[in-house]
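Project standup — Tuesday

K.O.: blocked on the structure for the chain from last sprint. Re-posting the sequence here as requested.
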Amino acid sequence: MGVVKKEVNVKKQRKKEVKLFGVGMLYLLPAIILLSVFLFYPMFKTLYFSFFEVQGGGTVERFVGFENYISLFKSSEFKESLKATFLFVLYVVPGEIIVSLFLAVIASEKMKGMGFFRTIFSSTLGVSVAAGATIFLFIFHPSLGAINNVLGFLGFGPIEWLTSSKIALISVAITTIWMHIGINFIILLGGIQNIPEEMYESAKIDGAGYFSRLFKITIPMLSPVLFFVSMIAIIGSFQTFGQIDLLTGGGPDNSTNLIVYSIYKQAFSYGHFGFASAQAIILFFIILLATIVQFRFGERKVHYQ
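H.V.: unblocked you, prediction finished:
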């Protein structure tokens, strides 16, 4: 009798779990539909196109297997694009994290009028990519630009910020750092404000100076936030497009032709959708590998409270 009762209870428990699972899936259904339409379907379609010769309008001509990938790695333009992309990430990620952290540390100080500076530091969050790139298009202008005018006043010659293959990538990186400061600043400032004040008071009592508190309390306690910011910075840098299109158009001499912009050109300028899809898949795996490496090695230095 006891065994029968136990089996009945188990069945009731299973029915309850199935019912709860069904209710949960109903709540998730809108998100699943949106992700399927705008993420999963395009992803699998891109993978499918990468193995075919695809003409304009998405018309599949013939199966080519790994030919697009082979041509990709033989292409000198793709190799230059790959090099430019990694250099760009190397310039942008440390730059935006260091600048944002510096501003967040300053803004965390309890001083009169600091609210005004917090607003200024986070203001780039409200600037669109098109507007930000247009601003720097005027700043970097060879004759009318603010920077070259200042340099001319100081007796230095003008710098070809966007027309020199040696400097153009750095110029776009500076623009990108400025655009990303706002969101990174807000996240880092929130992280600093969540550090218990008692830790600083104890350190002061023990005689710790400002920089000692900064490097032994603030930064270690901020490490989970820094880890998150570095992750979104890396992914965002690999996906940079708008400022490239508006500032340099991938030039000069393909020095700013990042992978994302190369995908755009191959697909919509040249009509090589299969070739562009292969590049998109390569970029996906590069970002995936960078994320795995970051989690594998970067998370070791994270100190959770």
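K.O.: great, moving the ticket to review. The first strand starts at residue 52 and ends at 55. The chain has a mean pLDDT of 86.
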